[in-house]
Write a structure and sequence with these properties.
The complex is a heterodimer of chains A (about 270) and B (about 190).
Chain A: H1 4-18, H2 27-40, H3 46-55, H4 57-67, H5 78-92, E1 98-103, H6 109-120, E2 127-133, H7 136-144, E3 146-148, H8 152-161, E4 172-175, E5 178-181, H9 183-186, E6 189-193, E7 205-210, H10 219-232, E8 233-241, E9 256-258, E10 264-267
Parallel strand pairs in A: 1-2, 1-7, 2-6, 7-8
Antiparallel strand pairs in A: 3-5, 4-5, 8-10, 9-10
Helix pairs in contact in A: 1-3, 3-4
Chain B: E1 9-14, H1 18-25, E2 37-41, H2 48-57, E3 63-64, E4 77-79, E5 85-88, E6 94-97, H3 109-120, E7 124-128, H4 137-145, E8 149-153, H5 162-170, E9 175-177, H6 182-188
Parallel strand pairs in B: 1-2, 1-7, 2-4, 3-4, 7-8, 8-9
Antiparallel strand pairs in B: 5-6
Helix pairs in contact in B: 3-4, 4-5
The complex binds S-adenosylmethionine.
Keywords (chain A): Methyltransferase, Transferase
InterPro entries (chain A): Bact_Chemotaxis_MeTrfase, CheR_C, CheR_MeTrfase, CheR_N, SAM-dependent_MTases_sf
Protein name (chain A): Protein-glutamate O-methyltransferase CheR
Protein backbone atom coordinates (compact mmCIF):
# COMPACT_ATOMS: atom_id res chain seq x y z
CA UNK A 1 0.00 0.00 0.00
CA UNK A 2 1.25 3.37 -1.01
CA UNK A 3 1.11 5.64 2.01
CA UNK A 4 -0.68 8.93 2.24
CA UNK A 5 2.39 11.13 2.02
CA UNK A 6 3.49 9.38 -1.15
CA UNK A 7 0.07 9.84 -2.69
CA UNK A 8 0.08 13.53 -1.79
CA UNK A 9 3.49 13.88 -3.37
CA UNK A 10 2.31 12.16 -6.53
CA UNK A 11 -0.79 14.36 -6.71
CA UNK A 12 1.31 17.50 -6.33
CA UNK A 13 3.90 16.47 -8.90
CA UNK A 14 1.26 15.45 -11.41
CA UNK A 15 -0.44 18.80 -11.00
CA UNK A 16 2.82 20.65 -11.43
CA UNK A 17 4.03 18.67 -14.45
CA UNK A 18 0.80 17.99 -16.29
CA UNK A 19 -1.84 20.31 -14.82
CA UNK A 20 -4.24 17.50 -13.86
CA UNK A 21 -5.66 17.90 -10.37
CA UNK A 22 -6.46 14.60 -8.67
CA UNK A 23 -6.58 16.01 -5.15
CA UNK A 24 -10.37 15.69 -5.03
CA UNK A 25 -10.41 12.00 -5.92
CA UNK A 26 -11.50 9.49 -3.29
CA UNK A 27 -8.39 8.61 -1.35
CA UNK A 28 -9.34 4.97 -0.96
CA UNK A 29 -9.90 4.54 -4.65
CA UNK A 30 -6.94 6.63 -5.82
CA UNK A 31 -4.63 4.75 -3.45
CA UNK A 32 -5.88 1.40 -4.61
CA UNK A 33 -5.48 2.25 -8.30
CA UNK A 34 -1.93 3.47 -7.79
CA UNK A 35 -0.94 0.41 -5.76
CA UNK A 36 -2.48 -1.79 -8.40
CA UNK A 37 -0.67 -0.02 -11.21
CA UNK A 38 2.67 -0.22 -9.42
CA UNK A 39 2.14 -3.90 -8.84
CA UNK A 40 1.05 -4.71 -12.40
CA UNK A 41 3.97 -2.75 -13.85
CA UNK A 42 6.41 -4.31 -11.42
CA UNK A 43 7.66 -1.24 -9.57
CA UNK A 44 9.74 -2.05 -6.51
CA UNK A 45 9.77 1.44 -5.10
CA UNK A 46 7.52 4.45 -5.11
CA UNK A 47 10.44 6.70 -6.06
CA UNK A 48 10.97 4.76 -9.31
CA UNK A 49 7.31 4.99 -10.11
CA UNK A 50 7.18 8.72 -9.43
CA UNK A 51 10.18 9.47 -11.57
CA UNK A 52 8.73 7.50 -14.47
CA UNK A 53 5.43 9.36 -14.21
CA UNK A 54 7.34 12.64 -14.15
CA UNK A 55 9.69 11.98 -17.01
CA UNK A 56 7.50 10.01 -19.43
CA UNK A 57 4.29 11.67 -20.63
CA UNK A 58 3.31 8.37 -22.25
CA UNK A 59 3.48 6.67 -18.90
CA UNK A 60 1.53 9.47 -17.29
CA UNK A 61 -1.22 8.78 -19.82
CA UNK A 62 -1.23 5.18 -18.72
CA UNK A 63 -1.53 6.29 -15.12
CA UNK A 64 -4.53 8.50 -15.90
CA UNK A 65 -6.17 5.61 -17.69
CA UNK A 66 -5.62 3.34 -14.72
CA UNK A 67 -6.87 5.86 -12.13
CA UNK A 68 -9.97 6.88 -13.99
CA UNK A 69 -11.39 3.35 -14.43
CA UNK A 70 -13.19 3.11 -17.72
CA UNK A 71 -15.17 -0.11 -17.25
CA UNK A 72 -18.54 0.30 -18.96
CA UNK A 73 -21.32 -1.59 -20.75
CA UNK A 74 -24.21 -1.02 -23.10
CA UNK A 75 -27.54 -0.70 -21.30
CA UNK A 76 -25.73 -1.07 -17.97
CA UNK A 77 -28.47 -1.51 -15.34
CA UNK A 78 -31.33 -2.24 -17.77
CA UNK A 79 -33.95 -1.09 -15.24
CA UNK A 80 -32.49 2.41 -15.42
CA UNK A 81 -32.75 2.48 -19.21
CA UNK A 82 -36.28 1.20 -18.99
CA UNK A 83 -37.27 4.24 -16.95
CA UNK A 84 -35.58 6.56 -19.46
CA UNK A 85 -37.39 4.80 -22.27
CA UNK A 86 -40.83 4.73 -20.70
CA UNK A 87 -41.03 8.01 -18.82
CA UNK A 88 -38.19 10.43 -19.43
CA UNK A 89 -37.86 10.27 -23.22
CA UNK A 90 -41.62 10.61 -23.84
CA UNK A 91 -41.52 13.79 -21.77
CA UNK A 92 -38.52 15.18 -23.63
CA UNK A 93 -40.32 14.33 -26.88
CA UNK A 94 -42.49 17.42 -26.50
CA UNK A 95 -39.44 19.67 -26.92
CA UNK A 96 -38.43 21.00 -30.33
CA UNK A 97 -34.84 19.95 -29.76
CA UNK A 98 -33.22 17.54 -27.30
CA UNK A 99 -29.70 18.03 -26.01
CA UNK A 100 -28.12 15.28 -23.94
CA UNK A 101 -24.75 15.32 -22.18
CA UNK A 102 -22.93 12.12 -21.24
CA UNK A 103 -20.28 13.28 -18.75
CA UNK A 104 -17.62 10.62 -18.24
CA UNK A 105 -18.81 8.63 -21.24
CA UNK A 106 -15.76 6.35 -21.32
CA UNK A 107 -15.62 4.27 -24.54
CA UNK A 108 -19.14 5.30 -25.49
CA UNK A 109 -21.29 2.23 -24.82
CA UNK A 110 -23.68 4.41 -22.82
CA UNK A 111 -23.96 6.94 -25.64
CA UNK A 112 -24.78 4.33 -28.28
CA UNK A 113 -27.36 2.82 -25.95
CA UNK A 114 -29.02 6.22 -25.69
CA UNK A 115 -28.88 6.74 -29.44
CA UNK A 116 -30.63 3.43 -30.02
CA UNK A 117 -33.40 4.38 -27.61
CA UNK A 118 -33.80 7.79 -29.20
CA UNK A 119 -34.14 6.22 -32.61
CA UNK A 120 -36.71 3.75 -31.34
CA UNK A 121 -38.69 6.66 -29.87
CA UNK A 122 -38.50 8.49 -33.21
CA UNK A 123 -36.56 11.33 -31.62
CA UNK A 124 -33.22 10.92 -33.31
CA UNK A 125 -33.83 13.64 -35.90
CA UNK A 126 -34.08 16.32 -33.22
CA UNK A 127 -31.53 15.03 -30.75
CA UNK A 128 -27.87 15.76 -30.22
CA UNK A 129 -25.62 13.74 -27.91
CA UNK A 130 -22.60 15.41 -26.34
CA UNK A 131 -20.16 12.86 -24.98
CA UNK A 132 -17.21 13.98 -22.87
CA UNK A 133 -14.46 12.40 -20.84
CA UNK A 134 -11.20 13.40 -19.21
CA UNK A 135 -9.40 10.71 -21.16
CA UNK A 136 -8.84 11.36 -24.90
CA UNK A 137 -8.05 7.71 -25.58
CA UNK A 138 -11.49 6.44 -24.62
CA UNK A 139 -13.06 9.15 -26.79
CA UNK A 140 -11.18 7.79 -29.82
CA UNK A 141 -12.81 4.40 -29.26
CA UNK A 142 -16.19 6.01 -28.67
CA UNK A 143 -15.98 7.92 -31.96
CA UNK A 144 -15.43 4.71 -33.87
CA UNK A 145 -18.39 2.93 -32.31
CA UNK A 146 -16.56 -0.36 -32.53
CA UNK A 147 -16.88 -2.76 -29.62
CA UNK A 148 -15.82 -6.39 -29.07
CA UNK A 149 -18.26 -8.78 -30.68
CA UNK A 150 -18.07 -11.16 -27.73
CA UNK A 151 -19.86 -8.59 -25.56
CA UNK A 152 -22.90 -8.44 -27.84
CA UNK A 153 -24.72 -11.36 -26.27
CA UNK A 154 -24.74 -9.67 -22.88
CA UNK A 155 -25.55 -6.27 -24.36
CA UNK A 156 -28.42 -7.67 -26.34
CA UNK A 157 -29.82 -9.25 -23.15
CA UNK A 158 -29.48 -5.91 -21.37
CA UNK A 159 -31.19 -4.26 -24.32
CA UNK A 160 -34.14 -6.64 -24.09
CA UNK A 161 -34.41 -6.09 -20.32
CA UNK A 162 -34.44 -2.35 -20.92
CA UNK A 163 -37.59 -2.84 -22.98
CA UNK A 164 -35.96 -3.05 -26.43
CA UNK A 165 -38.14 -4.85 -28.95
CA UNK A 166 -35.99 -4.98 -32.06
CA UNK A 167 -33.33 -7.38 -33.20
CA UNK A 168 -30.29 -5.89 -31.47
CA UNK A 169 -27.89 -7.30 -34.05
CA UNK A 170 -29.55 -5.10 -36.65
CA UNK A 171 -27.80 -2.08 -35.14
CA UNK A 172 -24.26 -3.18 -35.96
CA UNK A 173 -22.23 -5.04 -38.50
CA UNK A 174 -20.00 -7.82 -37.27
CA UNK A 175 -16.51 -8.12 -38.65
CA UNK A 176 -13.36 -9.90 -37.42
CA UNK A 177 -14.50 -10.14 -33.82
CA UNK A 178 -15.79 -6.58 -33.66
CA UNK A 179 -19.21 -5.00 -33.85
CA UNK A 180 -19.37 -1.67 -35.59
CA UNK A 181 -22.43 0.38 -34.77
CA UNK A 182 -24.18 2.13 -37.61
CA UNK A 183 -22.82 5.53 -38.53
CA UNK A 184 -26.23 7.13 -38.41
CA UNK A 185 -25.81 6.98 -34.62
CA UNK A 186 -22.32 8.45 -34.59
CA UNK A 187 -23.49 11.34 -36.76
CA UNK A 188 -25.66 12.53 -33.91
CA UNK A 189 -22.80 12.56 -31.42
CA UNK A 190 -20.27 15.22 -30.52
CA UNK A 191 -17.16 14.09 -28.67
CA UNK A 192 -14.92 16.34 -26.62
CA UNK A 193 -12.36 16.14 -23.88
CA UNK A 194 -13.79 17.72 -20.74
CA UNK A 195 -12.47 17.53 -17.20
CA UNK A 196 -15.13 17.76 -14.51
CA UNK A 197 -12.52 19.04 -12.08
CA UNK A 198 -11.35 22.07 -14.00
CA UNK A 199 -13.51 22.71 -17.07
CA UNK A 200 -16.67 24.75 -17.17
CA UNK A 201 -20.22 24.42 -18.31
CA UNK A 202 -20.35 24.65 -22.13
CA UNK A 203 -24.00 24.36 -23.14
CA UNK A 204 -27.51 23.89 -21.85
CA UNK A 205 -28.96 20.40 -21.74
CA UNK A 206 -32.29 18.69 -21.24
CA UNK A 207 -30.76 15.54 -19.86
CA UNK A 208 -27.36 14.95 -18.28
CA UNK A 209 -26.04 11.49 -17.53
CA UNK A 210 -23.05 11.11 -15.29
CA UNK A 211 -22.97 7.51 -14.17
CA UNK A 212 -20.29 5.82 -12.12
CA UNK A 213 -17.96 8.79 -12.32
CA UNK A 214 -18.77 10.60 -9.08
CA UNK A 215 -17.95 7.48 -7.04
CA UNK A 216 -14.28 8.19 -7.75
CA UNK A 217 -14.52 11.71 -6.27
CA UNK A 218 -14.60 12.82 -2.65
CA UNK A 219 -17.65 14.64 -1.29
CA UNK A 220 -16.31 18.08 -2.09
CA UNK A 221 -15.45 17.33 -5.69
CA UNK A 222 -18.79 15.57 -6.10
CA UNK A 223 -20.46 18.75 -5.00
CA UNK A 224 -18.41 20.78 -7.45
CA UNK A 225 -19.38 18.47 -10.33
CA UNK A 226 -23.04 18.51 -9.31
CA UNK A 227 -23.05 22.32 -9.37
CA UNK A 228 -21.55 22.22 -12.83
CA UNK A 229 -24.41 19.96 -13.94
CA UNK A 230 -26.89 22.24 -12.29
CA UNK A 231 -25.53 25.19 -14.26
CA UNK A 232 -25.73 23.17 -17.45
CA UNK A 233 -29.30 21.92 -17.07
CA UNK A 234 -32.31 23.64 -18.56
CA UNK A 235 -35.24 24.21 -16.28
CA UNK A 236 -37.23 20.97 -15.87
CA UNK A 237 -34.26 19.07 -17.26
CA UNK A 238 -33.11 15.75 -15.83
CA UNK A 239 -29.94 14.60 -14.14
CA UNK A 240 -29.18 10.87 -14.07
CA UNK A 241 -26.53 9.23 -11.90
CA UNK A 242 -25.29 5.68 -11.30
CA UNK A 243 -27.31 3.20 -9.23
CA UNK A 244 -25.36 3.88 -6.04
CA UNK A 245 -24.83 7.60 -6.47
CA UNK A 246 -26.99 10.39 -5.11
CA UNK A 247 -27.42 14.15 -4.83
CA UNK A 248 -28.50 13.69 -1.22
CA UNK A 249 -26.55 16.02 1.09
CA UNK A 250 -25.27 18.07 -1.86
CA UNK A 251 -25.84 21.79 -2.27
CA UNK A 252 -28.09 21.35 -5.32
CA UNK A 253 -30.48 18.91 -3.67
CA UNK A 254 -33.18 21.44 -2.79
CA UNK A 255 -33.65 22.43 -6.43
CA UNK A 256 -34.37 18.88 -7.54
CA UNK A 257 -37.09 16.32 -7.28
CA UNK A 258 -36.27 12.64 -7.45
CA UNK A 259 -38.14 10.49 -9.94
CA UNK A 260 -39.63 7.66 -7.82
CA UNK A 261 -36.72 5.80 -6.30
CA UNK A 262 -34.69 5.98 -9.48
CA UNK A 263 -31.36 7.76 -9.76
CA UNK A 264 -32.97 10.46 -11.87
CA UNK A 265 -33.68 13.97 -10.63
CA UNK A 266 -35.71 16.72 -12.22
CA UNK A 267 -34.63 20.33 -11.90
CA UNK A 268 -37.62 22.18 -10.52
CA UNK A 269 -36.09 25.52 -9.54
CA UNK B 1 -20.57 12.14 17.13
CA UNK B 2 -17.85 10.85 19.41
CA UNK B 3 -19.62 7.63 20.29
CA UNK B 4 -20.45 7.07 16.65
CA UNK B 5 -16.86 7.25 15.52
CA UNK B 6 -15.82 3.91 14.11
CA UNK B 7 -13.07 2.50 16.30
CA UNK B 8 -13.54 -1.14 15.39
CA UNK B 9 -14.80 -2.76 12.28
CA UNK B 10 -16.16 -6.28 11.76
CA UNK B 11 -16.15 -7.77 8.27
CA UNK B 12 -17.90 -10.93 7.19
CA UNK B 13 -17.00 -12.44 3.83
CA UNK B 14 -18.28 -15.53 2.10
CA UNK B 15 -19.43 -17.21 -1.06
CA UNK B 16 -21.24 -20.46 -1.79
CA UNK B 17 -22.69 -21.91 1.40
CA UNK B 18 -22.25 -18.76 3.47
CA UNK B 19 -25.82 -17.48 3.31
CA UNK B 20 -26.97 -20.45 5.36
CA UNK B 21 -24.34 -19.62 7.95
CA UNK B 22 -25.48 -16.01 8.10
CA UNK B 23 -29.12 -17.02 8.49
CA UNK B 24 -27.98 -18.96 11.51
CA UNK B 25 -25.73 -16.24 12.95
CA UNK B 26 -27.81 -13.11 12.38
CA UNK B 27 -30.75 -13.81 14.72
CA UNK B 28 -28.34 -14.23 17.59
CA UNK B 29 -26.52 -10.93 17.20
CA UNK B 30 -27.00 -8.40 20.01
CA UNK B 31 -28.29 -4.95 19.20
CA UNK B 32 -26.24 -1.94 20.22
CA UNK B 33 -22.90 -3.43 19.12
CA UNK B 34 -20.02 -0.96 19.42
CA UNK B 35 -18.92 -1.36 15.80
CA UNK B 36 -20.38 -1.61 12.30
CA UNK B 37 -20.57 -4.97 10.52
CA UNK B 38 -19.87 -5.03 6.79
CA UNK B 39 -21.02 -8.12 4.93
CA UNK B 40 -19.59 -9.02 1.53
CA UNK B 41 -21.00 -12.02 -0.29
CA UNK B 42 -20.52 -13.21 -3.83
CA UNK B 43 -23.80 -13.19 -5.61
CA UNK B 44 -25.38 -12.67 -8.96
CA UNK B 45 -26.05 -9.18 -10.22
CA UNK B 46 -29.48 -7.70 -9.49
CA UNK B 47 -30.60 -9.78 -6.57
CA UNK B 48 -29.62 -6.91 -4.28
CA UNK B 49 -32.92 -6.36 -2.62
CA UNK B 50 -33.59 -9.94 -1.87
CA UNK B 51 -30.29 -10.38 -0.04
CA UNK B 52 -30.76 -7.18 1.93
CA UNK B 53 -34.33 -8.14 2.75
CA UNK B 54 -33.32 -11.63 3.70
CA UNK B 55 -30.71 -10.32 6.08
CA UNK B 56 -32.96 -7.62 7.54
CA UNK B 57 -35.60 -10.25 8.20
CA UNK B 58 -33.25 -12.27 10.34
CA UNK B 59 -31.86 -9.69 12.71
CA UNK B 60 -32.82 -6.81 14.97
CA UNK B 61 -29.57 -5.05 14.11
CA UNK B 62 -30.50 -2.29 11.63
CA UNK B 63 -29.44 -3.02 8.05
CA UNK B 64 -28.42 0.20 6.32
CA UNK B 65 -28.39 0.82 2.62
CA UNK B 66 -24.94 1.26 1.13
CA UNK B 67 -24.57 4.08 -1.34
CA UNK B 68 -21.41 5.83 -2.40
CA UNK B 69 -20.03 7.96 0.50
CA UNK B 70 -22.38 6.45 3.07
CA UNK B 71 -20.92 7.10 6.51
CA UNK B 72 -20.83 4.02 8.72
CA UNK B 73 -22.28 4.11 12.20
CA UNK B 74 -21.74 1.66 15.01
CA UNK B 75 -24.32 -0.99 15.70
CA UNK B 76 -25.46 -1.28 12.09
CA UNK B 77 -25.02 -3.81 9.29
CA UNK B 78 -23.89 -2.79 5.79
CA UNK B 79 -24.17 -5.11 2.82
CA UNK B 80 -21.86 -4.55 -0.12
CA UNK B 81 -24.07 -4.00 -3.19
CA UNK B 82 -23.73 -6.29 -6.17
CA UNK B 83 -21.55 -5.24 -9.08
CA UNK B 84 -19.45 -2.78 -7.05
CA UNK B 85 -16.28 -3.12 -5.03
CA UNK B 86 -16.37 -1.45 -1.65
CA UNK B 87 -13.53 0.63 -0.22
CA UNK B 88 -13.09 2.40 3.12
CA UNK B 89 -11.98 5.95 3.70
CA UNK B 90 -10.14 6.50 6.98
CA UNK B 91 -12.98 8.62 8.38
CA UNK B 92 -15.41 5.70 8.14
CA UNK B 93 -16.94 6.73 4.82
CA UNK B 94 -17.71 3.97 2.33
CA UNK B 95 -16.60 4.49 -1.27
CA UNK B 96 -17.88 2.34 -4.12
CA UNK B 97 -15.83 1.37 -7.13
CA UNK B 98 -16.94 -0.17 -10.40
CA UNK B 99 -13.53 -1.25 -11.67
CA UNK B 100 -12.61 -4.65 -13.08
CA UNK B 101 -13.54 -7.84 -11.24
CA UNK B 102 -11.02 -9.35 -8.87
CA UNK B 103 -10.96 -13.15 -8.53
CA UNK B 104 -13.78 -13.14 -11.07
CA UNK B 105 -15.86 -11.30 -8.49
CA UNK B 106 -17.32 -7.86 -7.96
CA UNK B 107 -17.67 -7.31 -5.09
CA UNK B 108 -14.47 -9.09 -4.23
CA UNK B 109 -13.77 -10.08 -0.63
CA UNK B 110 -10.05 -9.40 -1.10
CA UNK B 111 -10.75 -5.81 -2.16
CA UNK B 112 -12.96 -5.14 0.88
CA UNK B 113 -10.54 -6.80 3.30
CA UNK B 114 -7.44 -5.11 1.89
CA UNK B 115 -9.03 -1.69 1.91
CA UNK B 116 -10.21 -2.17 5.51
CA UNK B 117 -6.71 -3.25 6.51
CA UNK B 118 -5.26 -0.10 4.95
CA UNK B 119 -7.81 2.24 6.53
CA UNK B 120 -8.32 0.65 9.94
CA UNK B 121 -5.25 -1.55 10.56
CA UNK B 122 -5.41 -3.34 13.90
CA UNK B 123 -9.07 -2.39 14.46
CA UNK B 124 -10.27 -4.83 11.81
CA UNK B 125 -11.81 -8.17 12.71
CA UNK B 126 -12.55 -10.27 9.67
CA UNK B 127 -14.61 -13.43 9.54
CA UNK B 128 -14.33 -15.61 6.47
CA UNK B 129 -17.03 -18.20 5.81
CA UNK B 130 -17.78 -21.01 3.42
CA UNK B 131 -17.05 -20.61 -0.28
CA UNK B 132 -15.71 -22.37 -3.33
CA UNK B 133 -13.02 -20.01 -4.53
CA UNK B 134 -9.96 -18.43 -2.97
CA UNK B 135 -11.20 -14.84 -2.78
CA UNK B 136 -10.55 -13.46 0.69
CA UNK B 137 -7.28 -15.26 1.37
CA UNK B 138 -5.04 -12.35 0.28
CA UNK B 139 -7.27 -9.94 2.12
CA UNK B 140 -6.90 -11.98 5.30
CA UNK B 141 -3.14 -11.89 5.05
CA UNK B 142 -3.16 -8.10 4.52
CA UNK B 143 -5.36 -7.67 7.59
CA UNK B 144 -3.00 -9.88 9.57
CA UNK B 145 0.04 -7.89 8.40
CA UNK B 146 -1.59 -4.69 9.58
CA UNK B 147 -2.33 -6.12 13.00
CA UNK B 148 -5.99 -7.08 12.59
CA UNK B 149 -7.76 -10.25 13.69
CA UNK B 150 -8.73 -13.19 11.50
CA UNK B 151 -11.51 -15.61 12.30
CA UNK B 152 -12.23 -18.42 9.90
CA UNK B 153 -15.09 -20.85 9.71
CA UNK B 154 -13.82 -24.36 10.28
CA UNK B 155 -13.54 -25.86 6.79
CA UNK B 156 -14.97 -29.09 8.18
CA UNK B 157 -18.17 -27.31 9.17
CA UNK B 158 -18.36 -25.20 6.01
CA UNK B 159 -20.69 -26.17 3.17
CA UNK B 160 -17.82 -25.36 0.81
CA UNK B 161 -14.42 -25.72 2.38
CA UNK B 162 -12.21 -24.27 -0.35
CA UNK B 163 -12.47 -20.60 0.68
CA UNK B 164 -11.73 -21.08 4.39
CA UNK B 165 -9.00 -23.66 3.64
CA UNK B 166 -7.28 -21.34 1.18
CA UNK B 167 -7.18 -18.58 3.76
CA UNK B 168 -5.84 -20.92 6.44
CA UNK B 169 -3.02 -21.88 4.10
CA UNK B 170 -2.04 -18.23 3.76
CA UNK B 171 -2.41 -16.94 7.30
CA UNK B 172 -2.44 -18.26 10.79
CA UNK B 173 -5.99 -17.45 11.91
CA UNK B 174 -6.59 -16.11 15.39
CA UNK B 175 -9.58 -18.39 15.67
CA UNK B 176 -11.13 -21.24 13.74
CA UNK B 177 -14.77 -21.53 14.68
CA UNK B 178 -17.86 -23.61 14.05
CA UNK B 179 -20.96 -22.03 12.63
CA UNK B 180 -22.60 -22.15 16.07
CA UNK B 181 -19.87 -20.13 17.74
CA UNK B 182 -19.77 -17.19 15.33
CA UNK B 183 -22.57 -15.10 16.84
CA UNK B 184 -21.26 -15.31 20.36
CA UNK B 185 -17.76 -14.45 19.17
CA UNK B 186 -19.12 -11.29 17.52
CA UNK B 187 -21.23 -10.37 20.52
CA UNK B 188 -18.18 -10.61 22.77
CA UNK B 189 -15.96 -8.31 20.67
C1 LIG C 1 -16.55 3.81 -14.81
S1 LIG C 1 -16.52 4.91 -16.19
C2 LIG C 1 -18.23 5.23 -16.42
C3 LIG C 1 -18.70 5.04 -17.83
C4 LIG C 1 -20.19 5.15 -18.05
N1 LIG C 1 -20.70 6.45 -17.68
C5 LIG C 1 -20.93 4.06 -17.32
O1 LIG C 1 -21.60 4.31 -16.31
O2 LIG C 1 -20.81 2.89 -17.74
C6 LIG C 1 -15.82 6.38 -15.51
C7 LIG C 1 -15.38 7.39 -16.54
O3 LIG C 1 -15.19 8.67 -15.92
C8 LIG C 1 -14.11 9.34 -16.50
N2 LIG C 1 -13.59 10.37 -15.60
C9 LIG C 1 -12.87 10.21 -14.46
N3 LIG C 1 -12.52 11.39 -13.94
C10 LIG C 1 -13.05 12.35 -14.76
C11 LIG C 1 -13.03 13.76 -14.76
N4 LIG C 1 -12.37 14.44 -13.83
N5 LIG C 1 -13.67 14.42 -15.76
C12 LIG C 1 -14.31 13.74 -16.73
N6 LIG C 1 -14.37 12.39 -16.79
C13 LIG C 1 -13.73 11.69 -15.82
C14 LIG C 1 -13.13 8.21 -16.75
O4 LIG C 1 -12.15 8.55 -17.73
C15 LIG C 1 -14.04 7.05 -17.17
O5 LIG C 1 -14.16 6.98 -18.56
Amino acid sequence: MTDERELDLLINEVYEYYGYDFSGYSQASFGRRISRLMEVDGFKSFADFLSKVRSEPEYFKRMVEEITVNVTEMFRDPAFYRVLRTTILPELATKPFIRIWHAGCSTGEEVYSMAIMLEEANLMHKALLYATDINPQVLETAKKGIFPLRMMKEYSENYVHSGGKNDFSGYYTANYGFAKFNERFTEKMVFAQHNLVSDRSFNEFDLILCRNVLIYFDKQLQDHALSLFDESLANLGYLALGTKESIKFSSIQKKYQQHDRDKIWKKIK
Amino acid sequence: MEENQVKKLVLIGGSAGSLEVLMHVLPELSTGLAFPIVIVLHRKHSDDLTLEELIAMKTLVPVKEVEDKTVMTNGAIYIVPSDYHLLFEKDGTLALDASEKVNYSRPSIDVVFESAADAFGPSVIAILLSGSNADGAFGCSRIKENGGTIIIQDPKSAGMSYMPSSAIQMVEPDMVVDMDEIASVINRI
